[in-house]
Amino acid sequence: MPQVKLVEIGPRDGFQSVNEFIPTSLKTAVIDRLVEAGLRKIQITSFVSPKAIPQMKGARQVSEYVLTKYPAVEPFALVPNLTGAKMAVAAGLKEIGPVMSLSESHNMANIRRSVEESLEETKAIRQQFPDTKITQDIATVFGCPFEGRMRVEPLLELLGRLHAIGIRDFTLCDTIGVAYPKQVTEVFQKATAAFPDCGFGAHIHDTRNMGILNSYLALQNGASSVQTAIGGLGGCPFAPGASGNTATEDISYMLEREGYATGLDMDKLVATARFLQANVAGNYSGHHAAISAEFREMGMPA
Amino acid sequence: MPQVKLVEIGPRDGFQSVNEFIPTSLKTAVIDRLVEAGLRKIQITSFVSPKAIPQMKGARQVSEYVLTKYPAVEPFALVPNLTGAKMAVAAGLKEIGPVMSLSESHNMANIRRSVEESLEETKAIRQQFPDTKITQDIATVFGCPFEGRMRVEPLLELLGRLHAIGIRDFTLCDTIGVAYPKQVTEVFQKATAAFPDCGFGAHIHDTRNMGILNSYLALQNGASSVQTAIGGLGGCPFAPGASGNTATEDISYMLEREGYATGLDMDKLVATARFLQANVAGNYSGHHAAISAEFREMGMPA
Q1: Is A285 in the B-facing interface, judged by CB distances under 8 Å?
Q2: A151 part of contact set with chain B, CB < 8 Å
Q3: Is some CB atom of chain B closer than 8 A to the CB atom of A301?
Q4: Separation CA B22–CA B81 (nearest Å)
């Protein structure tokens, strides 16, 4: 069976889209269920200024909780800069995800830095933490809410500069859900061909109902992992109207049918999506009802 | 620009999923908007017993309305049997879509006939109406709520028998939304290879969030058209829990980005989906908000 890594980002990207503060105990209760459902690589939080994103308060407690309770889980956190990276490493995390955007204006809106400054931050992070795994998030790869459609050439140039700094793992993000099949195919084919010593993940928002299709095509064209959020909870507060991640349970259903070994328990994923929906008000794009045990009890094939 | 035919089935499959009767004037008001948005091939109704499906009362009036008002539109109707075909032809329609299921038990539940009896009906329809275009709907091609996962060999056999009767156009339907990428690819590749003189359309329900992906793959593997419903309204009342068609506006967005000539006005499609949602309570699976003009005014790229 071919392997594919589903990277769960609900506790970061999903929660970040929610206005009302989610208590830390509820956050860890969701993570408990995600681990129980079989997820092993989880973006558990981000280390950002609580003024900028109050929802991420308690990042250290969440990190310590996961590190103490689940030695088999690979938790990682998003960090916008060196300060965040220091906090994440101090909390004990072995992997971090610095973020920058391909487009200047989104980078400025999102993390108040130029792309050049963000490159310097990643360089400093790489130098200060040589033993920490770094997976660089690149936002607005396919389109930017301020600059419109993005091209692949500037991406390849940015990847080259990050490669020169020593980065070998990347997540290419469709922050506002405007990617389309030919674009996803081109971006992943060219990125993986140009940087064969690197790993590429896909993070596709479901804003325009293209999340499953584009995630599928990313995997078909060289991506080794896809990021998804349980229930499809998500959005980017700095990209107006960009709501909805691709749902972990829906992608997982598709991958299982396709013959991938995901190691996930579908019923537990569905139960987790329902638990989240019952406890946290937000934008959900998953269709999990139809992959539930009750549905199968009605005679519906899996 | 490559052409692709979007076949609008909202006025039949969408409306059929709605419990409360939709007045004929509201039905034709939706059709007006669909035509105005650029749709030219529309399944406008079905000619069935009003006892079996009360929602389809007024099929003749709807047909006469469209035939009189829109000579450039190609309207067609679903018919479950010869009686329905006679009514459709009497109403003036030049194209009809007899329906049968690949699985015996769904055929019996849906139209109270064995597959053998349905073949006889299609044969009689073909013989009695040699000048009427016939596009045969085949339901439960990918899975059946009573018999589970379906295989491609019995489908090819059924296609062969229909071909021998003189049928050359088919719609392969994922009635309960259980198709997956490898299956869709195999079915369309094998069907188009085995019957090169035939046309194949795809009708994929979005029950498990695979509607866009599987419709895309059908087109990549030989389908010449896809059936969609405005707003994603839909479901099959005889397949428990099978809600949600693939949304016309979402597929149209994807196809436009891919460079297909659809001839559709996206803003008018979105307005029609909203009009329908505001006036008819049902299951909708479309994400149309994010492809609207307001969204673009917020600076979001198309």
Answers
A1: yes
A2: no
A3: yes
A4: 24
Q: What is the pLDDT of residues A94-124, one digit of tens each?
A: 999 999 999 999 999 999 999 999 999 999 9
User: Exposed (0-12), middle (13-18) or buried (19+): which is B192, by Cβ within 10 Å?
Assistant: middle
Q: Measured between CB atoms, does B206 come within 8 Å of chain A?
A: yes
Q: Shortest CA distance to A253 belongs to which of B179, B184, B244? A: B179
Question: Roughly what angle, to the nearest 10 degrees, separates helices B266-279 and B24-36?
Answer: 170
Cα separation, A250 vs B209, in Å, equals 7
A236 tagged catalytic = yes
Helix (H, G, I), strand (E, B) or coil at A189: helix
Q: Extract the tokens encoding A256.
A: 């299982």
Determine the 3-state secondary structure of A205 from DSSP: strand
| CA gap B172, B102 in Å, rounded | 10
Chain-centroid distance of CA B202 in Å reads 8
- Find the CB nearest B290 among A148, A183, A241: A241
The β-bridge partners of A170 are: A136, A200
pLDDT digits (tens, 9 = 90+) for A176-217: 899 999 999 999 999 999 999 999 999 999 999 999 999 999
Q: Which chain A residues are within 8 Å of B146, Cβ to Cβ?
A: 299
CA separation for the pair B43, B76 (Å, rounded): 5
- Tell me how far the alpha carbon of residue A147 is from its chain's centroid: 22
- Report the alpha-carbon angle A57-A61-A63, nearest 5: 105
- Residue A207, classified by CB atoms within 10 Å of its CB into exposed (0-12), middle (13-18) or buried (19+), is buried
Distance (Å, whole) CA A293 – CA A273: 14
Distance between CA atoms of B290 and B302, rounded to whole angstroms? 9
Chain A residues with CB under 8 Å of B185 CB are none
pLDDT at position B242: 57
Amino acid letter, A158: L
pLDDT tens column, A153-169: 999 999 999 999 999 99
Question: Could you give the ipTM of this predicted complex?
Answer: 0.94
Of B145, B212, B258, nearest to A182 by CB-CB distance is: B258
- Residue B182 is encoded by which pair of tokens? 């490898």
Q: Residue A69: helix, strand or coil by DSSP?
A: helix
3-class SS string, B181-239: HHHHHHHHHHHHHHCCCCEEEEEEECCCCCHHHHHHHHHHCCCCEEEEEHHHCCECCCC
Does B180 contact A285 at a Cβ distance shorter than 8 Å? no
Give the model's pLDDT for residue B237.
Answer: 58
How many angstroms separate the CA atoms of B292 and B300, rounded? Answer: 10
CA dihedral over B233, B236, B241, B245, signed as positive or negative: negative
Using only C-alpha atoms, what is the Rg of chain A?
18
Residues in chain B with pLDDT values less than 50: none
